[in-house]
Structures are given as structure tokens and as C-alpha cells.
Specification:
The chain is α/β, with parallel strands linked by helices. Helix content is 43%, strand content 17%. It is built from seven helices and six strands. Helix 4 packs parallel to helix 5. The termini are close together.
């Protein structure tokens, strides 16, 4: 199973100003296209900036077929869950932990990772949550292949450096479709 961790850094949040929004968008689109074309299942946490991108690509490839995409959301977000989530067929809602967003998201991540033995993890852009997910994946699935697209900036670049990944295509490349064709 492949895990996608992606988000766009927001103003007044960590990594804001270090991201390449265009590259993040293109990388997510390329990732979903390659997974769809190769019929590779993947899962992700349904970030509100990423979910619409995933859906816009997936709907063109899967049509009436059951998509091989699992999406996870915490119930704590209630009506703030992206409307595109309703289009996915494999949605997992996890219970909130009181009114605590951090604990609720942490619960969702634990459920998501326990449910999905992970062979490969892809990191695109992102804020601190993407770094947290990388560390959790490394701890739970130490043999999983890491693909942090440092060229998208944000947390992905920090993960590339923290985990001492050495691949120029991940560090500086923008040919995301070809990269995913080769790596996935």
C-alpha cells in the first residue's frame, strides 16, 4: 500500500513561504494519475487543499469503478470536511477525542497507519503534520520506501534532509509524472 502525505503550507503556519504551490499541485496530480494508470492503491488523510485535487484526477480515471483510494478523516472537523470526500467510496471516519483537534488527528493517523501496512510513502509540500506522519511511518514500517519531493518545498524538503535521502530527482526534479512512473 502507498501512503500520500501532502498539504499546502498556510500563512502563519510552519513552512509557509518555503513551498512551491504550483509544484505541489502538479506533483499530486501526477501521483494520482500514475496510481490510477498502474492500478496502484493508496491512502491519505484528506487534507482540505489536497482532497479536491485527488478527486478531480480520480474521477477522470475511475468513472463508475471502485477507486483504489482510501481517505481518512476525523469527525472533529464535522462540516469542515471537504465536500469532495462524499464522492470517495472508501471513507474512514475516526472518532474525535473531545474537542481536542491535535489528539483527534493523532487518533486518525494511528488508525490510518494500523489499517494500512505501508510499502511506500510519498511526501509532497506540507506543514508539520507531514513531518509527524513521516516519523510515524518510519517507526511503524521501517522498510517502507520514502519519496519526499523536496522540490515541492515545505515539510517534504525537511523530510528529505532529516531522513538523509540522496536522490537528485527528488531534491530538484519537477518531472513528477516520469518520476512516479519510475518509482511506483
Amino acid at each position: 500500500m502507498i501512503f500520500l502525505s501532502a498539504s499546502v503550507p498556510q500563512p502563519d503556519r510552519e513552512f509557509f513561504g518555503t513551498e512551491n504551490v504550483y509544484a505541489i499541485k502538479e506533483a499530486v496530480i501526477s501521483f494520482v494519475r500514475v496510481c490510477a494508470e498502474k492500478k496502484l492503491p493508496f491512502y491519505f488523510g484528506g487534507h482540505p487543499a489536497i482532497t479536491p485535487l485527488v478527486w478531480n484526477v480520480a474521477k477522470n480515471y475511475y468513472e463508475d469503478k471502485e477507486p483504489a483510494i482510501k481517505i481518512y478523516q476525523s469527525r472533529i472537523f464535522g462540516d469542515r470536511i471537504p465536500k469532495e470526500v462524499e464522492h470517495f467510496k472508501d471513507v474512514h471516519l475516526t472518532d474525535a477525542v473531545g474537542d481536542d483537534i491535535r489528539q483527534s488527528v493523532d487518533r486518525m493517523r494511528h488508525v490510518m497507519f494500523e489499517d494500512n501496512p505501508t510499502d511506500c510513502a510519498v511526501f509532497i509540500g506540507g506543514m508539520d503534520g507531514v513531518v509527524v506522519e513521516a516519523r510515524m511511518i518510519r517507526e511503524m514500517y521501517p522498510d517502507a520506501r520514502f519519496l519526499p519531493l523536496a522540490s515541492t518545498g515545505g515539510a517534504a524538503k525537511a523530510i528529505y534532509e532529516e531522513f538523509q535521502i540522496e536522490d537528485e530527482r527528488l531534491k530538484e526534479g519537477y518531472a513528477f509524472y516520469e518520476l512516479f512512473q519510475d518509482f511506483l
